[in-house]
Amino acid sequence: MSISKKIKMKLKYFVNRIKVDILNISELDLVIPGEISKDPFSDLIKSLSSLNSVKTIIEIGSSSGEGSTKSFVESIKNRKDADEVTFLCLELSDSRFKKLQNYLKPYKFANAFNLSSVDIESFPGEKEVELFYKERKTALNKTKLSEVLRWRQQDIEYISSTGRNICGLEAIKLSKKITNFDLCLIDGSEFTGKAELNILIGANYILLDDTETFKCREAFEILDKSHDYQLIEHQPLIRNGFAAFKKIQSASK
């Protein structure tokens, strides 16, 4: 990353902190730069989403479309069978969703949903988060526990305030008549990775971001122990880690 880009990112960070701390704006209303970009994870996303066998794709946590969403789109739009591909994006933040919609307008294969992936009842309790924080040393420990718990409460309050306390994933699967996706990326709230996996397990490819924090640590361990999935890539030192799993097809298929 260039020095000028680092400076711009730091300035944006401080501006955002002012908005949150002084203007009392929810962090979920801030438009943040895409993180999954020009790195091994974005390359993997492009590679998998270019496969002919991958027709249905869902991305949780699309933000404004500048990160992983862009990698998906750039790959799909170059496919000869792009008109056969369904790419679904999930983003709860209203401000990020508006930008996401605008970004996706030119692409008929893409649809965005302004929903929470899961309902509030699927969030872990405070004690569960505290236990994870105290007993498991992960990248999450770089942040104070009080701040982590504030994130959790902020997510719950945002879902409640928008009136979208439903399981967006189940609603989308039902409306699109999709039992299992070909490819999915779990990169939503810090606290919902395991709950999202429980709904998406069965997909041919499952991508996890932030495997070294609460978000996807348990999801990673579930898939890593599963006899139905094979780990095809794991990079724990890139940002907060990412991983990719492929469903193992039975010999009879």
Compact summary:
With 253 residues, this protein is α/β, with parallel strands linked by helices. 42% of the residues lie in helices and 14% in strands.
Descriptive account of the structure:
It is a single chain. The protein is α/β, with parallel strands linked by helices and 253 residues long. It folds into two domains: 1-30; 37-247, 3-Layer(aba) Sandwich (Rossmann fold). Helix content is 42%, strand content 14%. The chain has nine helices and seven strands; from the N terminus they run H-H-E-H-E-H-E-H-H-H-E-H-E-H-E-E. It has helices at residues 3-21, 40-48, 68-76, 94-104, 126-135, 145-162, 168-176, 193-200, 214-225, and strands at residues 56-60, 86-90, 110-113, 183-186, 205-209, 229-235, 242-247. It has a seven-stranded mixed β-sheet with strand order 3-2-1-4-5-7-6, with helices on both faces. Helix 3 (68-76) links the parallel strand 1 and strand 2. Helix 2 packs parallel to helix 3 (68-76), helix 5 packs antiparallel against helix 6 and helix 8 (193-200) runs parallel beside helix 9 (214-225). The longest helix is centred in the first third of the chain and has 19 residues, at 3-21. Mean pLDDT is 89; it is low at 4-23.
Count of spatially separate domains? 2
Q: Specify the overall morphology.
A: globular
- Calculate the mean pLDDT score and round it: 89
Assembly context of the chains: single chain
Note poorly predicted spans: 4-23
Decide which structural class fits the backbone: alpha/beta
Strand order of the largest sheet: 3-2-1-4-5-7-6
Approximate strand percentage: 5-15%
CATH superfamily of the largest domain: Vaccinia Virus protein VP39
Query: Ends: how far apart?
Result: 45 Å
CA radius of gyration is 18 Å
Largest beta sheet, briefly?
7 strands, mixed
How many distinct helices?
A: 9
* Secondary structure tally: strands: 7
Note the run of SSEs as H and E: HHEHEHEHHHEHEHEE
Q: Roughly what percent helix?
A: 40-55%
CATH class of the largest domain: Alpha Beta
